Amino acid sequence: MSRLIVIGGSKGIGNAIVTSLLSSYEEVVNISRTAPEQTASNLIHHDCDIVNDELPDIDSADGLVYCPGSINLKPFNRLSISDFKNDFEINVLGAVKAIQKYLPALKNGTNPSIVLFSTVASKLGMPFHASVAASKSAIEGLTKSLGAELAPTVRVNAIAPTVTDTGLASKLLRNDRMIEKMIERHPLNKYLHPEEVAHMVEFLLSDKAASMSGQVFEMDCGIVSFKI
Ligand SMILES: NC(=O)c1ccc[n+]([C@@H]2O[C@H](COP(=O)([O-])OP(=O)(O)OC[C@H]3O[C@@H](n4cnc5c(N)ncnc54)[C@H](OP(=O)(O)O)[C@@H]3O)[C@@H](O)[C@H]2O)c1
User: Fold this and answer.
1) Which is the closest atom of ligand 1 to the Cα of 35?
2) Ligand 1 mean position to 9 CA, how many Å?
3) pTM
4) 66 lines ligand 1 (CB under 6 A)
5) Per-residue confidence at 24, pLDDT binned at 50, 70, 90?
6) Any long-range contacts for 13-16 (C-beta under 8 Å, 24+ apart)?
7) 34 Cα nearest atom in ligand 1
8) What is the pLDDT of residue 131?
9) Tens digits of residue pLDDT in 32-85
10) For atom 34 of ligand 1, which residue has the closest CA?
11) Which atom of ligand 1 is nearest to the CA of 121?
C-alpha cells in the first residue's frame, strides 16, 4: 500500500500537503495535536504531540514530511536560553524523533523520500531571527548529512520558504499595510500560499525528483536570490 506520513498536517502548509496528496497515496497518515478539518476514507489521524508523546507504530511508508516549526522573532537580548531550546525542540529534535521512528518503515516503502522545512532566514540575515535561524540551519545540516547517510535508499530534501500565508505567519500579515509591505519586499511581488509549497513537496516526494537528495530548495519569491 502506498502511504505518506505527514507530521503536522492539521493546519497550514501540512494541511495543504494532505489535501493535495490524498489522491496520490492509498493512505495519508497525519500526526498532530489536533485533527485536520477535512475527512477522507484514506486519511488517518493520530493525536500526538511530537515533543512529548510517543509516535504511533507504522510498518511501511513511501514518504515522510515534517512540518511543525516556529517563528519566534525577538531581539537577541530578549531571547532566553529556553526560547532557543524550545525552538530547537520543535524544529529539529521533533524531526529527528520522527525520522528515527519511521526510518524502518521508509526502508520498507517504495522509492522513499523525506521532506523537511527550513526558512529563508537561514540564508538571509534578518534582525530578530537568531533563534529560528539557528534551528533551521540545523535542519539544513541534517538534510545534507542524512541525504548522504541514507543514499541511495532514502532521499532527504528540505524546502526553505519565505513568508507563507498560514496561522504561523499571521502576525506578519495581520493587516492590509503589512500585506502590502510584504509584497513590496519580495522581488517577485508576492509571498507564498501554502498550496504552492505543497506542489513542491509533491514534486520532491515523487519519482520526478529521483536525482535530488541532500538539497535545500529556496521558495523565496526572490528575497534571497535577487537584489533589484
Ligand atoms: N508560514 C511561514 O511563513 C513559514 C516561513 C518559513 C518557514 N516555515 C516553516 O514551514 C513549516 C510549516 O509552517 P506552517 O506555517 O504551515 O505552520 P503552522 O500553520 O503552524 O502548522 C504547523 C503544523 O504542525 C503541527 N504541530 C505544531 N506543533 C506540534 C507538536 N508539538 N506536535 C505535533 N504537531 C505539531 C500543527 O498542528 P497542531 O497544532 O494540530 O498540533 C500544524 O498542523 C514550519 O516548519 C515552519 O517553520 C513557515
Assistant:
1) 40
2) 8
3) 0.98
4) no
5) very high
6) 13/67, 13/117, 13/161, 13/164, 13/166, 13/194, 13/197, 13/198, 13/201, 14/65, 14/67, 15/194, 16/194, 16/195, 16/197, 16/198
7) 40
8) 98
9) 999 999 999 999 999 999 999 999 999 999 999 999 999 999 999 999 999 999
10) 32
11) 6
CA of 228 to the centre of ligand 1 (A): 31
Query: In this structure, are residues 21 and 202 in contact, taking their beta carbons and an 8 Å threshold?
Result: yes
Take atom 41 of ligand 1 and give the residue whose Cα is closest.
Answer: 33
Would the CB of 8 count as within 6 Å of ligand 1?
Answer: yes
* 181-205 residue pLDDT tens: 999 999 999 999 999 999 999 999 9
118-138: per-residue pLDDT in tens? 999 999 999 999 999 999 999
Placement of cell 497550514 in the chain: 12
